[in-house]
Amino acid sequence: MHALDDHFHHAQVIINDRLLDIPKSATLAINEKSRRLQREGKTVFRLGLGQSPFPVPELMVSRLQAYARAKDYMAVQGYLPLREAIAGFLKRSEGLDRSAADIIIGPGTKELLFGLQMALDCELVLPAPSWVSYAPQAALLGKIVHWIPTRPNRGWKLTAEDLDAHCRRRAGGRCQLLILNSPNNPSGACYDALELEQLAAVARRHAVIILSDEIYSELHYRGDHRSIARYCPERTVISNGISKWAGAGGWRLGFFAFPPELRHLLRAMTVIASETFTSVSAPIQMASICAFEDSPALIGYIHACRHIMRGIGIDFSQRLRAAGVDVVTPGGGFYCLADFASQTEALRQRGIANAPQLAAALLEETGVATLPGEDFGLPDRLALRLALVDFDGEGLLQQVLDEPDLQVDLDRPELATLAQACDRITNWLPTA
Ligand SMILES: Cc1ncc(COP(=O)(O)O)c(C=O)c1O
After folding, report:
1. What angle do CA 12, 16, 20 make, to 5 degrees?
2. What integer pLDDT is reported at residue 49 of this predicted model?
3. 260 and 395 in a common domain
4. Is the bond preceding 183 in cis, omega lying within 30 degrees of 0?
5. What residues make up the domain containing 84?
């Protein structure tokens, strides 16, 4: 580098300190290693990336084609017919009375979540484990994050007692924003009615604001997803979108639904939206309306995806347990969380002392890519998140659409890659 360039780079181009504080995610290291192994001609089992294996429903695709010429900017809060369709979806699925005026559309819920954290003077409360991006967003905004541990024998779920104890410690301080995610990434945990009711009572008692991340709602294996908004509507913001259960992560569309009591917060977020992303792409908003309507085609698609993920989640976790790995059977979504604590000593003898080392060794020696629990707020556990999505979703979806009761387990030829990945993990284990 030229001396002048060097001076320019170091003296003037200074990166915001907050960015420097965010550690490089172990996910990136795993991705780089996966690519190297693939270049070397090795088979890599892609249990790292959490992306839907299913195609976008045909109905949405044909609408998108039809609306390709829509070119105008849309209202900042979102296209009104889309917001009306979402209000209808919330009424049908949760019995909630939220109107189009209570909803904002964003380019993915991730962007909306950043806006919410920016708008609210708060501290962030996260059950450990939680999804990878919540805490780094808080760090970018200079916010304090409180992690509340959960236990595998409680299904990795936050308990009302633990939330209450946390809130008592913070009494009199800043507003606490709790993010509750069910069905959960990374654990697959789903909260039931009683658990939600108890958490809602604590939230109400301590004036906690809840962001209910329901991005996997329609992938609840039994179709029994419940929002905590049923029990605590006045302080719950619902977050959902088309990225997971409609297979359209790359379309970038999500929504937040606010109660009337939090309308000032919605207004603040609308200001942020108007000064940042303006509005979500017009054709994408128009084509997404049908994802929230009650059509037989969409219901058939969702039931089929659910049926497939249920068969996979139950069989995969059972096979791991049979090999001595602790896994809570997931209740929905794409993932399970495998805990290798019982193998701690044997793994240590192989030079593996933490989850990033475990993920790296597993990938190097078996070709199975996973993510370390550390990325999800579990730094002290030998836990890995497994995304059970390395299969031909389009082919299997069609089969289940043709035959809704099709038996789905890892013995199916379409799921041979997942079965093999599972075998490689269990054969690699010290105790196997
Ligand atoms: C739990 C959870 N929440 C939110 C998101 C973000 O989804 P999007 O920004 O596509 O709406 C994801 C995506 O991986 C997720 O797993």
Report:
1. 115
2. 84
3. no
4. yes
5. 72-293
Q: Are residues 107 and 172 in the same domain?
A: yes
Residue 65 neighbours by CB under 8 Å, 6+ apart? none
Tell me: pLDDT of 418 over 80: yes
| Best residue for ligand 1 mutational test, from 244, 280, 385, 386 (most atoms within 8 Å of Cβ) | 244
Residues 245, 300: Cα–Cα separation, whole Å:
12
The domain total for the chain is 2
369 membership: H or E segment, kind and range: strand 368-369
CA of 216 to the centre of ligand 1 (A): 9
Q: What is the pLDDT of residues 144-203, one digit of tens each?
A: 999 999 999 999 999 999 999 999 999 889 999 999 999 999 999 999 999 999 999 999
Regarding beta strands 335-339 and 383-387, do their DSSP bridges make them parallel or antiparallel, or are they unpaired?
A: antiparallel
Residue 146 forms part of a structural domain: yes
Residue 180 alpha carbon to ligand 1 centre in Å: 13
Give percent of the chain above pLDDT 70: 96
Q: Are 393 and 219 in contact (CB under 8 A)?
A: no
Q: What is the pLDDT of residues 88-141, one digit of tens each?
A: 999 999 999 999 999 999 999 999 999 999 999 999 999 999 999 999 999 999
Question: If 0-12 CB within 10 Å is exposed, 13-18 middle and 19+ buried, where does residue 114 land?
Answer: buried
Question: What H or E segment, with its residue span, contains residue 177?
Answer: strand 175-181
**Which residue's entry shows tokens 């707020």?**
377
Q: 181 CB less than 6 Å from ligand 1? A: yes
CA atoms within 13 A on the CB side of 267: 5
Whether 215 is in the pocket of ligand 1, judged by its Cβ within 6 Å, is: yes
Tell me which H or E stretch contains 372.
strand 371-372
CB atoms within 10 A of CB 20: 9
Q: Tell me, what's the pLDDT at 169?
A: 95
Looking at the fold, whether 163 and 229 belong to one and the same domain comes out as: yes
231 with 255, same domain: the answer is yes
Please, what is the average pLDDT of the chain?
A: 94
CATH number at residue 146: 3.40.640.10
Q: What is the mean pLDDT of residues 396-415?
A: 97
The answer on 272 and 349 residing in a single domain is no
The answer, yes or no, to whether any atom of ligand 1 lies below 6 A from the CB of 243, is yes
- If pLDDT is split at 50, 70 and 90, which confidence band does 315 have? very high
Q: How far is the CA of 387 from the centre of ligand 1 (A)?
A: 14
Write down the residue that tokens 């929905």 correspond to: 332
Per-residue model confidence as pLDDT tens digits over 250-289: 999 999 999 999 999 999 999 999 999 999 999 999 999 9
